[in-house]
Amino acid sequence: MKDPKANVRTNFLFFFIILGITLFVGILFVYSSLFAIQNIKDINPEQKFKTYIVALVMGFIGATFAFILGNLFIKNTLIMLAFYIFLNMFLGIVLFAPPIAGVRRWLNFGPFQFQPSELAKLILPAFLAFYYSKLKNKKNVLTNVLTPLILCSLSIFLIFLEPDLSTTILITIITFITMFLGISDKTVMIFFIVLILALGITLFIFQEKILQSYQISRLTKEDPFQSQRAKDAITGGGLIGKGPFAGEEKYAVPESYSDFIIAVIGEEWGKIGIAMVVTLFLFLCHELVYMAYLTNDYTTFIFCGATASWIFIQVMINTLVGLGVPWMPVTGVTLPLMSYGNSSMIVTLTSIGWALGLIYNNSDFKRVEEKYEER
Questions:
Q1: Where are the domains of the chain?
Q2: Under DSSP, is residue 103 helix (H, G, I), strand (E, B) or coil?
Q3: What is this structure's pTM?
Q4: What is the distance between the alpha carbons of residues 301 and 84, in angstroms, rounded to a whole number?
Q5: How does pLDDT run across 195-209, given as a tens digit for each residue?
Q6: What does the pLDDT look like over 27-44, one tens digit per residue?
């Protein structure tokens, strides 16, 4: 019988190896795509790449602090309330920032831009995990469903006002997933599912009154210009690709360093490369959820499950958009840890660090041993 402590350490080691490989290949893809995009977009690829590396370092710093202090934070009522208030204040402030390309989504800190809506992916799952861990009555619909929905709706509404429809939808999905993980009573769960279906049907019926015409168009129509060029690059890469930094089709792909980085991966590494990237993320997300499950800690499982879910959802959206799947609108969702996106990189790494910190601090090796004995 293996030492369960060693088994958990093995899971951690495997996770860090996969994470390291993911970040390394991500750096290669960003570097290649930045120098490709300079031909069709007025950017300084060297400066942008340096900014990307700075964001990577800041992400590691955030992950380290979250790993060390995350367990303390998520169990402290005052700290979690402060995080919730801070998030919504930040989302409110950005609405008064100077517009960039007609929208207010970023705050400038010198040469560095930060997107506050990305913070919602970190703070809302943490806040909901804290909230459900503190609930005494697990069968009350008001406290289990309506109250958390109202609390999260404030953040979602502020993001919608920027406007940022794709992030609004993504944060809404993250909220629903986190609540799904947090609700333990079957009757309450049925009410929650029926409510979500009713909300979805209502929004669909009244979409023309809620959304602008261009937003409806983006959700219902593909972008043939971007999608076709991405598909051309992936098709040109064939099965095994043309090799690192090789290929010419990617030079015609708009936003190849962010929204369409899958086109760069497809041309340089082929369809096998795309499959490899998706598999890397599948391993990362699986290990995160599995290690959280082994802790038998309610809060840890909710947060890690939500974090793994939104990371993999973004991976699939970015991949399907890049592949030009007809029913997938061009949403502007980045590929976590691989696309150029400073805010995304910082928040994703911090979320992973927080998740690992919760797993590390709440691992019950006696229970882990019992689970291995049952196998």
A1: 4-374
A2: strand
A3: 0.90
A4: 20
A5: 999 998 988 887 777
A6: 988 888 887 776 666 677
